[in-house]
Amino acid sequence: MTKTTNNLDSCEAFAQLTALQPVGNLATLLTPQRVATAQVAMDDGMWFNYAAKAVDEPILQALQQLADEQQVVSQYRQLLDGAVMNGSEQRMVLHHLTRGQLGADVVHGGTSLRDFYQQQLDRIAAFCVQVHNGEVRGGSGERFTRVCQIGIGGSDLGPRAMYLALAHGQRSQKQLKLEASFISNVDPDDAGQVLAELPLSRTLFILVSKSGTTQETLTNESLVREALRSQELDPARHMVAVTSETSPLAQSKGFLTSFYMDDFVGGRFSSTSAVGAAVLMLAFGETVVKEFLAGAHQQDCLALNPNVDENPALLDALIGVYERNVLGYPATAVLPYSQALSRFPAHLQQLDMESNGKSVNRQGQAVRYATGPVVFGEAGTNGQHSFYQLLHQGTDRIPLQFIGFLREQGGSDRVIQGSTSQQKLNANLMAQIVAFAKGRRHKEANKVFVGQRPSSLIYAAQLTPRVLGSLLAHFENKVMFQGFLWNINSFDQEGVQLGKMLTQQVLGGRVEDDALDAYCRLFQS
Ligand SMILES: O=P(O)(O)OC[C@H]1O[C@](O)(CO)[C@@H](O)[C@@H]1O
């Protein structure tokens, strides 16, 4: 029988891992041969390189044993087959099914859910053709030239990061069909600024909310409808909805049409469902989105391999657990050397921290070990001129996740002072990996770099739609595997509820807590 409930600290392999001697010196471990060979293929010419991670052969073997003992790949298979992996909410976890079938046919209420997700993608594709060819137009009869997504959290971060990752490349290839904008924050300045810049008569809005009840999104929807009406445009001709079939939004009539996802796709895992597909297809067309989904599916296939040296997401997850639970590192920095990935760290913050920021296990008992790390990041080289000081010389050791590409997306690179911008970018990336790992001696104490700062590198020739899908799924699967290793439920998010409840008390004038009441008075003036 499959054992799925072990806490990390009750695993024999974890005890063995803890007893192993950590790598003494990362600088000597990082040989040229290791740089060339310590990597796992992610397909499509993409690699996960762990040469600069402080893991040697005995540690890797113990990590393999830990993966085996926790049966993480078998848990992944159960998830694919439709097991209820989100126990607290009694839900299946089916985001992998939005991009392909890998397990059993998952049927709910008499419907094959793979068919359901595919039908929604097909409906979105058909709608996008009508928008692109001008059959569907705005209230004044003009063609749509812009799209604007209203949503927050998973209904914003992933789709926005994916759009930004592809927009410049698609624009340079003259493939950008509609420019996209996003409204997420309930701060009136967010909607205010975006609406001021949009040609409303030519803008199609996508209202995205799985629950259909999110305060920020519904508030922004009202602001958008008001703005449309103020220009004598019928909001129902300018707005589509993406929601779950059971949400209150699904009953609303005020939309051109609605596309659906369901409760088995968590918000932060929804970029490959209708939530991400609607804006991406409107912006780039169906072919690009199919490529993106194929890349994600490819990583899902690789994640089935039980051998850690052939399963990049699992290896990444295991090294992360080693760094968190044996070496005691508190955080992880995501550092894409690609401006196109400027919002990718923000997406990963939600993906990782909302999934694995948990302190009880799947049986509801407190765990006695660290779980998800703090995740933050910034596109290189901008981060270098910001927080890298602390990463190099601060008192905490923070593992780093570099991402890089051989070529840029836009085809505008040229030589300036002996090197192209892309060459400069990648020179910085390579230099940082070595500086972090090896450090530098110096006679003045403040100029010493102790090194020993581990990093990994995901790299590919270019950030194409397929590579982007791969990257996204790699991190989704890494987070899933870490949740299995920690024996926590990565698929609920109760930690967001208390703040929402207190906010309702403030807005409803029913504050029960005296400190909150005092804060209310501060904001009255
Ligand atoms: O899509 P919805 O239901 O509006 O939710 C938005 C976000 O709110 C949360 O439920 C909690 O903040 C996220 O998990 C989710 O991505």
UniProtKB/TrEMBL annotation:
GO MF term list: carbohydrate derivative binding; glucose-6-phosphate isomerase activity; monosaccharide binding
GO biological process, one term: glycolytic process
Xref: Pfam families: PGI
Main location class: cytoplasm
Enzyme nomenclature, EC number: 5.3.1.9
Keywords: Cytoplasm, Gluconeogenesis, Glycolysis, Isomerase
Reaction(s) this enzyme catalyzes, per UniProt: alpha-D-glucose 6-phosphate = beta-D-fructose 6-phosphate
Domain of life, source organism: Bacteria
Active site: 354 (proton donor), 385, 500
Pathway as given in its UniProt record: Carbohydrate degradation; glycolysis; D-glyceraldehyde 3-phosphate and glycerone phosphate from D-glucose: step 2/4; Carbohydrate biosynthesis; gluconeogenesis
Assigned GO CC terms: cytosol
InterPro entries listed in its UniProt record: G6P_Isomerase (IPR001672), Phosphoglucose_isomerase_CS (IPR018189), SIS_dom_sf (IPR046348), SIS_PGI_1 (IPR035476), SIS_PGI_2 (IPR035482)
Subcellular compartments: Cytoplasm
CDD domains (UniProt xref): SIS_PGI_1, SIS_PGI_2
HAMAP family in the record: G6P_isomerase
Its biological purpose: Catalyzes the reversible isomerization of glucose-6-phosphate to fructose-6-phosphate.
Protein family (similarity comment): Belongs to the GPI family.
Protein name (record): Glucose-6-phosphate isomerase
Annotated source species: Desulfuromonas acetoxidans (strain DSM 684 / 11070)
Gene from which this protein is expressed: pgi
